[in-house]
Every structure is written in structure tokens, then in C-alpha cells.
Amino acid sequence: MRPYSMTVFDRIYWAMIVIGLVGGAVNWQAAMTTMTTNPGLGMLGNGAVMGILIGSVLLGLVINVLLWYFISRRVSNTARWIWVVLAAIGLPGSLRIIFAGNTQITLPGAGRAIVAINIVLQIAAAVMLFRAESRAWFARGGAAVDIDAFN
């Protein structure tokens, strides 16, 4: 049987993806401004910059969905660790955006709030991946876990 913590992980992860997409919409103008004022990208023009930004959002979405699939449906311990490492690598930049302001991009208050919510969701999702029943489930490759053993 699939552990409850993995069901909670799924819900948190999908909430994280949806909120990330909302954040992308809220922060779209700030991202466009940052990219078009960048000397290397600005010379490409607004259309190309918009294409790069749309491509980045789509690529991020595909990567997140694939990681979820391999973690939650294929019970891949490797994918679990890849996601945790990527989340940890992104954490300092996200914290810098919220608290110190990033020299490259300035987000409106709502954009910062969305980044903060996503940080909390990432931490909660990671906790669900490392609860005892989830660890046992990954160790067994998704085979049934006796949930009563953890109560």
C-alpha cells in the first residue's frame, strides 16, 4: 500500500507547481524587464526574450512533472535525491529574492510572497519524502509497506 506521506507529497508538489505558475504570471513583467535590460539578451529584442522566457517556464514545468512522475509513480530514489538537491541549490537564491533583494531581479510584494510560499511547500514536500513510511516505501521499490508498523 502506498504510504499516506506520499499522497501528501503529491498534493504539496502539485500545489507547488500551480503556485509556481501563478508566480510566473505575477512576476512576468519583472522577468521581462530584467531580461530586456540585460546587455547580452536585450539586443535580441522583446520577441526573442519573450520566447526565451516562455521556453524557460515550459522547460521548468516539464522537468518538475518528470521528477514528480519518477519520484511518486516510479518510486525512484535517484529522482527523489535529484529533486532534493535541486531544491537545496535553489534555496539560497530564493531567500535572497525574499529578504535581501536580488541585484538582477526585483519582484513585487506578491511575487516575494509566492516565492516564500513555494519555499515552505518545498520543505514540507521534502519532509514527506523522508518520513519513516516513505523511506521504507522507497527502500522496497514501491512494494506494500505495513503502515501499522509506524504507528
Which structural traits does this protein have?
single chain; 151 residues; mainly alpha
Portion in helices: over 70%
- Helical segment tally? 7
- Determine the N-to-C terminus distance: 15 Å
DSSP summary, beta strand count? 0
Kindly provide the radius of gyration, computed on alpha-carbon positions and rounded to a whole number of angstroms.
18 Å
**Uncertain residue segments:** none
Quaternary arrangement of the chains shown? Answer: single chain
Shape estimate? elongated
| Overall pLDDT level | 87
**What share of the residues does DSSP label as strand, in percent?**
under 5%
- Summarize the main sheet: none
Secondary-structure element string: HHHHHHH
How many distinct folded domains?
1
Summing up helix and strand content along with how strands pair, one would put the structural category as: mainly alpha
Task: Give the secondary structure arrangement, pairings included.
Blueprint: H1 4-26, H2 28-37, H3 39-42, H4 46-73, H5 77-100, H6 109-129, H7 132-139
What's this model, at a glance?
By secondary structure, the chain is mainly alpha-helical.
Textual characterization of the structure:
- This protein has one domain (4-139).
- Helices cover 78% and strands 0% of the residues.
- It contains seven helices and no strands.
- Helix 1 (4-26) runs antiparallel to helix 4 (46-73), helix 4 packs across helix 5 and helix 5 runs antiparallel to helix 6 (109-129).
- The two termini are 15 Å apart.
- The model has no long low-confidence stretch (mean pLDDT 87).
